[in-house]
Structure prediction request, 423 residues.
Amino acid sequence: MNNFVHKFKLVLGDKILRGRILFTLFVLVLFRLMAVIPIPGIDTLRLEQFISGNDFFGLLNIFSGGGLSNLSIIMLGVSPYITGSIIMQLMTVMFPKLKAMYQEEGNAGRKKFAQYSRLLTVPLAFMQGYAFIVLLQNQGILAKLGTFDLVTNLIVISVGSLLLMWLGELISEFGIGNGVSLIIFAGIVSVLPSSLGQLLFAFDPSQLPVYIGFIAASLVVIWGVVVITEAERPIPVTYAKQVRGNKVYGGVSTYLPLRVNQAGVIPIIFALSILLFPQMIVRFLVNVNNVIVQKISAFFLSILENQLFYGVAYFLLVFIFTYFYTAITFDPDSISKNLQRSGAFIPGVRPGVSTSAYIAKTLFRLTMVGALFLGVIAVLPLVVKYFTGISAVAIGGTSLLIVVSVVIDLIKKVDAQISAREY
Prediction:
């Protein structure tokens, strides 16, 4: 408690850190204001019924930061930007120059890589926006629009998504924490009061064991996410002694911390985006005036909506993206070269290639634990939903996972800022 009070005083006393936090809060408030500005021509009753009975749109509402629940001008949320980032990350596997730009060209290379992701977001936003509008029109939620109204609404919601992407970038640069993750977090938190109210209103005493089990599972998930996120494997590192004149430098022993879950919440967000994007396209194609396209789309939609397929695909994507994102962001070769340049070595391991191989092997084993845990936690709400039949559990479990991971990351960022100013 005393430590918390001390850190809180440091935050209030530091002008720069206080400014970063206030800027982040200001952007999040601005985001919530945009989330309540609807596009015209909405049947609110049909919209509420449609989203409440549809897991797909419930998850999509998470990514829109709650903007989809009232078809706001930012109904697409950060989904186009996340999809664009995933495509760019996947392209690093196929194009070595992109991988070199991201990993070896330092901050300038990463900025250029991020710029390509932003440019890719523009066509994706218009594609998803058009698919959304047509899909909602076919469901009777939006009135049939003329060409002018269709183009106007398409521009509004596409630009709204791009504006949200820009606000997320501003938080990352001038605020504190990951901007995109915080926007998703703010959207989830904003709907908590209404969700709890609905749960209390529809409380059924006969379902009491289910509610208790859900609370217990939620606590286990929170505990597990915190433990795995904080867990690390220290690799001992020793600096060689150097004699300069009459003084001896080096000879200090320290360690290289390797986290069990290097990727954080990113694999969950990436996996959900990959699962949701094809569904959106297929749902759009189902209503195309072509019998063959309709049949093919209906076939793929039945596969995508199958709970067993969805659960297996979700687990595998989380598992794969955990490894993939760790490989993109953590380079054992670079770590090995830096250790060698600074005269450091791992006891019992030769510098250079052997050190790189040792770090890669250790990281592979650690990531295996983190990926398995993250995959199991991700599909656990789906398993609970299968046995209880409560669809809100699946959406709530995913929301809980994202919220806990984002809060942990935010606390670390604040602690890092405090430590930097203390020293």
